[in-house]
């Protein structure tokens, strides 16, 4: 699908309502500067079984995979992080250039700031300049229905504008109700969202993604039945957006919401558990939430994921330079190949069937 400009005002303007660009800048700063991780590293509970005598050379390890009809050189998705404020242009450019050179997928942060309010569309459209093999546009599920603030709901035209703005192959719709509950200005209406997602999935390739609280089969199955093609489970174990919004609420003197963020800091399904829940439904699964190395990617695929997703783990590099971004992602791909070699898996399908052991809290979750 071709790239195109967003409707509405130019980069620096604001079309009334909440200044989304300021909020997005705050999110990035908080992730970089404050402790926002959840308390437990669930991926460390997944142990791959060492294969002492591989029957192939390391150079034969082939991490290529097909996701949503697009061929990737490695099963990695840079999941939607940012956009919609001035500093995001350089971050997204660094990510897109690295993704194009290394042959991995990339999504952007919520595009509502650009498509509905005309705020800094170039911070998204810069991605269209690079031949990323799989690009994912992004809008929020709560914004698909009218909310209490009176802002118009995003519909078919806005969804297509989000896709066209970055030349995307598919549309990611993110579920972030935990985050919305902690935001002082959060959107808290949900009735009718499932049907709205289904309506968009009938017209566009749609991926549904969580934002750090995990997906269960109970949620994913009705979405699949309405035409959603893939899922990004984004479970607990990495960045907590309840924590991010806790700090924002504190800064605004929103005592109730700040306490909610503290109370629900670790709320959700662990990422490995979410993969085990959703993979049997038969749709491609992106395992994100706490992925911090190529070994974590291998662990996710062994549980049944098609690919792994990273956001917070590469944000600092992306905020530094293209060279740092490319180096970090290349390191992860190398580590993935090492894990495949040491597990006796030459290809990703073989890795999906490699033996593993579950330990710790993840094991307790699976036994529930």
Compact description:
The chain is an alpha/beta fold and 368 residues long.
Terminal Cα span: 44 Å
Number of helices: 16
Portion of residues in beta strands equals 5-15%
**The CATH class:** Alpha Beta
Give the overall average pLDDT. Answer: 93
Explain the layout of strands and helices.
Blueprint: H1 20-33, E1 46-48, E2 65-67, E3 70-72, E4 76-78, H2 88-102, E5 105-107, H3 112-115, H4 122-125, E6 135-140, H5 156-166, E7 170-175, H6 177-182, H7 193-201, E8 206-210, H8 217-225, E9 230-232, H9 241-251, H10 255-263, H11 271-278, E10 285-287, H12 294-302, E11 307-310, H13 312-318, H14 322-343, H15 348-351, E12 356-358, H16 360-366
Helix pairs in contact: 1-9, 2-14, 9-10, 12-14, 13-14
Structure write-up:
- This protein has helices at residues 20-33, 88-102, 112-115, 122-125, 156-166, 177-182, 193-201, 217-225, 241-251, 255-263, 271-278, 294-302, 312-318, 322-343, 348-351, 360-366, and strands at 46-48, 65-67, 70-72, 76-78, 105-107, 135-140, 170-175, 206-210, 230-232, 285-287, 307-310, 356-358.
- It has 368 residues and is α/β, with parallel strands linked by helices.
- The chain has a single domain, classed as Alpha-Beta Barrel (TIM Barrel).
- Helix 2 (88-102) packs across helix 14, helix 9 (241-251) packs antiparallel against helix 10 (255-263) and helix 13 packs antiparallel against helix 14.
- The N and C termini lie far apart (44 Å).
- Residues 1-17 have low confidence and may be disordered.
